[in-house]
Amino acid sequence: MRMDCRKTIAGLAAPLALAACSGQPARVASTPRPVATPVNEIDAAFDLLMQSREADARKRLKAVLRREPLNAAAQLLVESIDGDPKALLGTQNYHYKVQPGDNAVGLAQRLLGNRLLAYRFLRYNGLKPPVALAAGQELLVPGQPPQPPVVRAPPAR
């Protein structure tokens, strides 16, 4: 049994050693990788939306979806262009007062959990990008208002 293992190891080592010495890359069987849309293509389409260039963004997103029909980010952005924001985000909402330094992308990330919802969020509020939010401005945020954390009193001794 030991001799068989040594022969097998020797049989494998020789081709690898020759490949290393030949200066040529060793041929390794590879499995094809699934096509993944680079994030920068989605970001580029998102940036176009945030500049109110819907037609250009739609064209880019359609190209992404032709290559990768199940790309969730591309689907989300197309829905943001085509769909009714009230139907997509829901009619229940609460008021939010814009704070200094707030912007649509940051608010979408913080309040809705996804920065790619910024365009939809602006449309929900009847705004068209590019827009600079002003401190004190009232916006509607879809969903339930966040609940303050429950503070429990320490147990009595």
Percentage of β-strand residues: 5-15%
Number of DSSP strand runs = 2
Q: What value does the average pLDDT take?
A: 84
| SS-based class | mainly alpha
Would you kindly provide a brief summary of this structure?
The longest helix is centred in the N-terminal third of the chain and has 21 residues, at 2-22. 50% of the residues lie in helices and 6% in strands.
Topology at a glance:
Elements: H1 2-22, H2 39-49, H3 54-67, H4 72-82, H5 85-89, E1 93-97, H6 104-112, H7 118-124, E2 138-142
Antiparallel strand pairs: 1-2
Helix pairs in contact: 2-3, 2-4, 3-4, 6-7
Overview of this protein structure:
The chain is mainly alpha-helical and 157 residues long. It is 50% helix and 6% strand. It contains seven helices and two strands, in the order αααααβααβ. The chain has helices at residues 2-22, 39-49, 54-67, 72-82, 85-89, 104-112, 118-124, and strands spanning 93-97, 138-142. A two-stranded antiparallel ribbon has the order 1-2. α2 runs parallel beside α4 and α3 packs antiparallel against α4 (72-82). The protein is elongated and about 65 Å long. The model is unreliable at 15-19 (pLDDT under 50).
Task: Identify the notable features of this structure and list them briefly.
157 residues; mainly alpha; two-stranded antiparallel ribbon; 7 helices; 2 strands; 50% helix; 6% strand; elongated
